[in-house]
Amino acid sequence: MKIEGRVWKYGDDVNTDVIFPGKYTYTLRKPEELAAHALEDLDPDFASNVKPGDIIVAGKNWGNGSSREQAVTSLKYAGVGAVVAVSFARIWFRNAINNGLPAITCPEAVEAIQHGDVISIDMDEGTIHTPRGDFDFAPFPPYLQEILKAGGIIEHVKKELSEEGR
Predict the structure, then answer these.
(1) Contact of 101 with 70, CB cutoff 8 Å
(2) DSSP the chain
(3) What is the residue-averaged pLDDT of the chain?
(4) Fewer Cβ atoms within 10 Å of its own Cβ: the N or the C terminal residue of the chain?
């Protein structure tokens, strides 16, 4: 799987309340509504300017805070192709995989990548191609790659069940 897009770069400790404001958690349900409020408290231009496949690059501890799933789904619905960070909060990372959004840890790439760069990610090879060179990351195990390729864990399970004839 290959992902290519323009970079939106952010710093350390971006929490789930900033990724998706808590005040909308129980009032918005539709994908386009969630996408419209992605990162609005951090970057008011993000939701109206992000393009399908764009990539978020961030510092350490991306997604810390509450376990709200909308902190992942709002980005996915906005078209984000992947998030590359120095590190992720554990729950945000698993929510990302479960929802089919690649979350890649690669501190060296984060340091080199600049806001607005166009980069590509080869998920199978574990390589991030940037204007300042290529950076390797540990490829995901096959079972996680299958979840990502299916678009998330629910789609993956549906596929598995249909292949088994259930």
Answers:
(1) no
(2) -EEEEEEEE--S--BHHHHS-GGGTTT--SHHHHHHTTTTTT-TTHHHH--TT-EEEE-TTBTBS---THHHHHHHHHT--EEEES-B-HHHHHHHHHTT--EEE-HHHHHH--TT-EEEEETTTTEEEETTEEEE-PPPPHHHHHHHHHTSHHHHHHHHHHHTT-
(3) 95
(4) C
Matching residue, tokens 């195990």: 141
Per-residue tokens: 1: 């799987």
**Residues 106-136: pLDDT tens digits?**
999 999 999 999 999 999 999 999 999 999 9
2-163 has which CATH code?
3.20.19.10
Q: How far apart are CA 144 and CA 24, in angstroms?
A: 30
From CA 146, how far away is CA 166, in angstroms rounded? 19
